Amino acid sequence: MGHYLRNRLLQAVVVILIIIVGNFILLNAVPGDLVDVLAGRGGDMDADLMASLRARFGLDDPLPIRLLDYIRNVLTGNLGYSWPHSQPVLDVVLQRLPATTLLVILSVITSVFIGTLTGVFAARKAHKLTDVILSMVVLVCYATPIFLTALALMLIFSVQLGWFPLSGLTTAGAEEGILATAADMGRHLVLPVVSLSLFYVAIYARLSRASMLQVLTQDYVRTARAKGVSERGVILGHALRNALLPVITMAGLQITELFGGAVLTETIFGLPGVGRLAYDAVFARNFPLLLGILIVCSFIIVIVNLLVDLLYMKLDPRVELTK
Amino acid sequence: MTLSTPICASADPVSHPAPILTVSDLRIETTGPQPAALLESVSFDIRPGETLALVGESGAGKSLSALAILGLLPPDAMRVAAGQIHLGRTDLATLSARQMRAVRGGRVAMIFQDPLGCLNPVLTVGRQITEALRLHKGLRGAAARARAVELLELVRIPEPRKRLDEYPHRLSGGMRQRVMIAIALAGEPELLLADEPTTALDVTISTQIITLLRQLQADIGLSILMITHDLPAVRMIADRVAVMYSGRIVETGIADAVFAAPRHPYTQGLLSARPRGAIAAGAAPLTEIPGAVPQPNERPSGCTFRPRCPRASALCAQERPAMPPATSGSKAACHHAGTSTDHARAF
Questions:
Q1: Which GO annotations describe the biological process of this protein (chain A) (predicted)?
Q2: Of A31, A66, A63, A37, which Cα lies nearest the Cα of A50?
Q3: Which one of B101, B113, B122, B199 makes the best mutation probe of the A interface by having the most chain A beta carbons within 10 Å?
Q4: pTM
């Protein structure tokens, strides 16, 4: 077990290093840099000033030198400096991380819970009317693009009904205090979480329905019935845990996908998250920031994958992590 | 492989007390617009402490009979169309779902063919035994654990305390079947339905399991319905035999009598298809029964064994042979029933 963890962490270091090198080279192949953006904004910058700015930001060194410098900095915890923010990159990313983390965690919990519940219920009613109707609803959820869901929800519940705030994570000048702040943030997060979850609810519903139907044909389910276990006991005590295994795998994928992939939702709902930050960084040619975001995200992804593996082992004793 | 003379504990079934299980005229059909009969007029009974073996090829309806007793036929696909199943004096069809659950694993327990697939892979052996103890004996916690250890000892599992915390995939095939038996015994059942319990095991382990079942039967007075096509196992354990073919019982009687003098051509064919004596010493080659078991919706008129039977006559096509009334020996549902001195020659 300890042996396994050590190997996995070693692998993680290599993976992150490859991500750094790959992204560094890729981003430097993109035409334009920070100075171009500044020059475009200023409008009257001459070539000398641009060259001196490039020298000041360290943009004129050869690529391998800059790469080595960058890696050396990363190893000491320095992800560079974000000039537009006038702050170290790490600080900028860490400021944005809580909003995204909250969004991702709430969305994963919501979609796993509702999706699995729907799937198990549909499996119990397989091929009956309830199942057919649920399948259609699920298909609609699956096929609707997130931005459309987000805009529709916003129109109905924020603009028309006024139940939820339109944008942002907190209300400016709202009540102080932990409870009040939490309630305020909760109200702001309902619509983003729902729009982000709907698609995944559909995925989990389909996954757990299929998985449950497959598990219910297994011999050990028949054994449980022959033992006198009630129908509820068969589903919850014997079938569900086996049926959950593919759901766990999917949840791991969802977390890692959302950490960088919640851009649309964050943009539409004006949430100060990492996805939004990355989007802005691209257009500002703020490559140190973009690289920093990629590194932080890959770090999170590696950790999440490790946790999923450990959880999987806990749920399925046949999986033994030895290598 | 030569078999020793089977030990037959109950010499005369007629003198036995009332049967604990009576299946009468059971008919199972597929559901759907055109129901096909999977099981037709199946009747048998089991007396306390007795072992009845249901023998026959795959698809004869042996397992269905056992699942029907527990009310575990797949509800979407099959249903009991006629007949009764009595446990003692209770008609099982009259029981509520809750009462039926008390029967399952309580008065009647079942073990299955593939002990790995039949144990839940994500639950420990202990958890799977104590669950049955909780349901049927109301035991929890340390008391349930202590009883589970006793049960594992009863089925001769070494280091029972250690095994409780193991998962099924860590155990050998024979060990898993012993665990299945321990789970089945948890509710202290009167009747054990053993659905091909030795089929997935190799010969040595299979013999051990049969021996264990016989010992348990002697120790705790269990009745067993043994479903199998393992004829040597039948000789070892069965008091009586019912031979099934294509959804019907075609011959039934005291095991010794059936083995010594089979009356139905199908039983005779089954017995000839089994190796006897030393094969290496140039013994007669194995005889097989030509053809295959017909599908439930393609059964021929009259006797369903007719197309494969060497004694088939015009009468067999017209009239389905009925099972004659009870006799002391064996009886067969066949127009041309009878022993032949060398029944292998018929094929």
A1: transmembrane transport
A2: A37
A3: B122
A4: 0.80
